[in-house]
Amino acid sequence: MTKRPRRNRKSEGIRAMVEETRVTTDDLIFPLFLIDGVKKQTEVGSMPGIFRLSVDLMLKEIEECLKLGIRVFDVFPAVEDQWKDKHATRSYDSEFFYLRTLREIKKQFPEATIMTDVAMDPYSSDGHDGLVRDGKIVNDDTLEILGRMALAQADTGIDILGPSDMMDGRVGYIRELLDQNGFSEVSIMSYTAKYASGFYNPFRDALDSAPKFGDKKTYQMNPANRREALIEAALDEQEGADFLMVKPAMAYLDIIRLLRDNSHLPIAAYNVSGEYSMIKAAALKGWLDGDRVMKESLLSIKRAGADVILTYFAKEFARSLRS
Ligand code: PBG
Known about the structure:
This protein is α/β, with parallel strands linked by helices.
């Protein structure tokens, strides 16, 4: 035998030298769930270790994470039913706790990079990402609401907007509005290939944001489709997206690779709630080594071509690196 690939695996030193992919805390975005009030924290039942936090505790959490090297956060609001309506009015009310908290975060931690979510579902009494009329999710009238929401979020000083709604034309619509209103520096990380997935349930649990009727299949992509992701990617690029995202991550590694090979933009992947919960559940039962499987999963997502990974494991990963 002249070729023995095992020679490059024979020691820790050699293995480290030929290692092709490495995940660092710089690659990660940590999603956080915000609730109204003070000194409040409630664990998400289906996401062990993940809490909805009130502003004071969220500031503490961000401070801790910054020390661990996590610098980018995606903040989602858990809105009480009484504040939800058909038009997601609270989403652009500058006095509402979400927008107030974003301002507070940027004031206390200007060095933290803050991302927000642009979609109606957390504020909608219908639990859909767009406006519902006669049982249908209407596209163009939703854009107007998303535009208002985007401007209100940008006005708090956040860094990146994440349109997760999957309405057609929203990236261009939001980009233009931002530029017209003096927010040309605010980035857009578009949920480009967001699939109608069963892996979002724990997130909907966290925000109590499940659709009140039907499903999201008329706007989120069919999990069977690959070519269609290229159509979405081309549109988002033309419309001015700064990042393209694939969501979920682990069951869609081929889509991550597809976008990586077909775009020069940074590719993000959202390692979603259900992916977190599966690993946590198995680890709690003692069926998997949670720490090892977490790292292997993040590695697989990066190896598939993701430059950026949104993951509920961010803090745990950073801690684990330290120890
Ligand atoms: C809302 C939104 C969802 C997620 C991020 N933004 C849920 C959905 O589309 O139903 C899912 C995130 C996760 O599961 O971790 N538009």
